[in-house]
Design a protein that fits this description.
24 strands, mainly beta, globular, 7-stranded mixed beta sheet, 6-stranded mixed beta sheet
């Protein structure tokens, strides 16, 4: 059983633990540089955006920087249309925000969260509040004045963690749509290829292929071995090959007819995870009652991974999670806690053999 978070300081659960909601942190801003200039016209509009990327976290506030000016001083800022869109596919965009003079409008999930920064003439920067996991990606800032226009790109990245996931029924059980739902149920979204590559560079090693957000199937190998694609770089991406391993890539797969695991991504928690340790092991129903008695609910897998990665939760005791698995987070590896590498490990004991706890 999974309880629903309650109130403005709702309690989300851990494996026998609780997440307490707190306020989000502040924003981070990027520098500006010209990324595209329309040439050949003396009065062309020039858009400037951030180099690289800007970084935020779930629940945070971020400024997507964008400024514009004219190569000729004769132009004013009246009648300029500012439009922000999000790139959802190489050839597909979704509307985020439009401004024409005093008329401003945000679209879809950005309503109530997006507004212009308005820091003087030529500022088209967008303030985005209460950042969500779905906000990750590339945004286009377009400035149009009569027949002149220019655009620049801003990439919004999120601090977070990639975690591999498969349901209790076993590995390679998920279609692409089922992988999307599975990540959402565990407080995450399907990871992007860039996020998986970054996780591999950070040491993620997983010998089972999983869906990514773009419909491709890949898996990261930081310790090359024969059962995980061999010792060479065939089928690898990134700085792969030889002793360095790499991200093995199966390419784009039939998203309704083929089944794999999932690589999910989640960002920071609005609270913390802690463990409730009863006098003796308990089954899932007993753990759920114990959490509920404290105004909490059993934590999701993504919440435990976020607590391990971002809050440095270290506990050498397995506890229940919302999907019925038992896991524990290790920041400081030691022999009695599952080996010499940090990570979130599955509990070794059979949960079905655990005895009830009366609450």
């Amino acid at each position: 059983m999974v309880s629903v978070a309650l109130g403005p300081r709702a309690l989300l659960a851990a494996a026998w633990g609780v997440l307490l909601l707190t306020a989000p942190a502040g924003a981070q801003r990027g520098r500006k540089k010209v990324v595209h200039v329309l040439e050949g016209e003396s009065g062309s509009v020039v858009v400037q955006t951030a180099p690289g990327q800007v970084v935020s976290h779930r629940g945070g506030t971020i400024v997507l920087p964008c400024r514009y000016h004219y190569e000729a001083a004769a132009h004013g800022h009246d009648g300029v249309r500012l439009k922000w869109t999000k790139v959802v596919d190489p050839l597909a965009f979704t509307d985020v925000f439009v401004a024409l003079g005093p008329q401003h409008r945000a679209f879809g999930s950005y309503r109530g969260r997006a507004e212009l920064q308005g820091d003087g003439p030529g500022d088209a920067s967008l303030v985005l509040r209460n950042v969500t996991l779905q906000d990750y990606g590339r945004y286009e800032c377009e400035v149009t004045n009569e027949l002149e226009d220019d655009a620049g790109m801003v990439k919004l990245d999120l601090e977070g963690v990639v975690f591999p996931y498969h349901p209790r029924g076993g590995r390679y059980k998920l279609t692409f749509a089922e992988a999307q739902r599975a990540c959402a149920e565990q407080d995450g979204i399907l990871a992007s290829a860039e996020q998986l590559h970054a996780a591999w560079r950070d040491g993620l090693d997983w010998c089972n292929a999983g869906w990514l957000r773009d419909g491709s199937v890949q898996y990261p190998v930081s310790q090359p071995r024969e059962p995980c694609g061999g010792l060479g770089g065939a089928g690898s991406a990134g700085a792969s090959g030889g002793a360095n391993g790499g991200v093995r890539n199966y390419g784009y797969r039939h998203n309704a007819g083929e089944r794999y695991d999932a690589f999910c991504f989640t960002s920071n928690l609005p609270g913390r995870v802690f463990f409730l340790k009863p006098l003796r092991p308990v089954p899932f129903a007993g753990a759920a009652r114990a959490c509920a008695a404290r105004g909490a609910a059993v934590a999701k897998v993504g919440q435990l991974f976020a607590a391990w990665k971002l809050q440095l939760l270290d506990r050498c005791t397995a506890g229940w999670l919302a999907d019925g698995s038992a896991r524990y987070p290790i920041v400081n590896p030691r022999a009695r806690c599952g080996g010499r590498r940090p990570g979130v490990r599955r509990g070794a004991r059979d949960p079905a053999a655990w005895t009830p706890l009366r609450v």
